[in-house]
């Protein structure tokens, strides 16, 4: 075999390998090892079960065909809010038809929110009229402003706060006495339940099986109030899908309402099994531990994001008790008659 023939044969073999995807290629770089969040703004996104680190754009690409994307948060955590804003933009680049659904606004304030989005009132007026959360400007303003800039709908998804408080105090029968327009705005089945969610809720509030009948009734009513929130948010999401077909829903909520596929997510799937839902849940990476706490939290979401713990609020038990009493004083002042 002469040199020309050898070169020709080598080229033919190389071309064949390239065409069939079998050519030797350099190894793809291994993903960077998962590192602890560096600040309160920092979140590390991972994809179970392999816990592969993801960037925000790659996460958005994976979620591009999902009907409803639910991002759980620890209310007031900067990393949660920054991740939500970044994901909102990344999802929009993938799918321009988008709806923002928010636990942080009650459905009876939808009109005030709409008037702000339409430019009829200013932000301070909207905050007052819609009874926005105290941390609206620092936490949720970027989400609403992105939606306003791109003319995207924003859904006030939560149940009216005063109705929730009164159900918690008087029980589910309170709904029977509501004016018809208010009752009609709520789900026809406002207390659909998932047994695993009830167990989780009772464990979270420290409920005891040995409680007396009065305490058990109070705990049951508190749980019914929680279910009213979850059922309302699930139904509002489905209403948005009906009102805005072909739109992707981005729902922002406290992580208890969504992690492990419980709460709002479970009730959403119960109502509409064909709707595809992805849950993104926060997991706290303790400062004193160099190991990411993934094994025990793997089922919390389809994707997880690791964040630093929030600072401890109180170390003085008495000051903590007084603060908690003040928080519940608003509920006590609610007129349920």
Automatic annotation (TrEMBL):
Q: Where is the Haem-binding uptake Tiki superfamily ChaN domain?
A: 59-267
Q: Where does this protein have coiled-coil stretches?
A: none
Keywords of this protein's UniProt record, alphabetized? Signal
Q: Which residues form the signal peptide?
A: 1-23
Q: Which domain of life is it from?
A: Bacteria
**Listed Pfam families:** Cofac_haem_bdg
Provide the protein name. Uncharacterized iron-regulated protein
Specify the species. Answer: Marinobacter gudaonensis
Which lineage do the record's taxonomy fields give for this organism? Answer: Bacteria, Pseudomonadati, Pseudomonadota, Gammaproteobacteria, Pseudomonadales
């Amino acid at each position: 075999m002469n040199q020309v023939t050898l070169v020709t044969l080598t080229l033919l073999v190389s071309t064949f390998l390239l065409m069939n995807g079998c050519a030797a290629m350099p190894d793809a770089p291994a993903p960077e090892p998962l590192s602890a969040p560096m600040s309160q703004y920092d979140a590390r996104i991972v994809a179970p079960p392999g816990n592969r680190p993801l960037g925000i754009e790659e996460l958005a690409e994976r979620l591009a065909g999902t009907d409803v994307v639910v991002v759980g948060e620890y209310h007031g955590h900067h990393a949660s809010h920054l991740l939500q804003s970044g994901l909102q933009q990344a999802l929009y680049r993938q799918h321009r038809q988008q709806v923002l659904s928010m636990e942080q606004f009650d459905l009876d304030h939808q009109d005030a929110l709409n008037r702000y989005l339409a430019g009829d009132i200013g932000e301070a007026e909207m905050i007052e009229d819609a009874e926005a959360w105290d941390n609206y400007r620092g936490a949720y303003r970027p989400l609403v402003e992105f939606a306003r800039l791109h003319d995207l709908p924003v859904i006030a998804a939560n149940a009216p706060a005063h109705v929730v408080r009164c159900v918690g105090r008087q029980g589910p029968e309170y709904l029977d006495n509501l004016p018809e327009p208010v009752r009609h705005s709520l789900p026809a089945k406002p207390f659909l339940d998932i047994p695993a969610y009830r167990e989780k809720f009772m464990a979270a509030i420290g409920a005891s099986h040995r409680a007396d009948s009065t305490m058990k009734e109070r705990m049951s009513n508190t749980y019914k109030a929680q279910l009213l929130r979850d059922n309302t948010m699930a139904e509002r999401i489905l209403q948005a899908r009906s009102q805005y077909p072909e739109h992707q829903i981005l729902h922002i909520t406290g992580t208890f309402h969504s992690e492990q596929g419980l709460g709002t997510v479970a009730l959403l799937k119960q109502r509409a099994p064909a709707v595809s839902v992805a849950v993104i849940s926060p997991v706290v990476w303790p400062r004193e531990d160099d190991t990411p706490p993934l094994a025990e939290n793997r089922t919390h979401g389809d994707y997880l994001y690791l964040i630093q713990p929030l600072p401890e609020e109180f170390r003085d038990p008495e000051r903590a008790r007084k603060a908690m009493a003040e928080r519940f004083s608003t509920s006590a002042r609610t007129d349920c008659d």
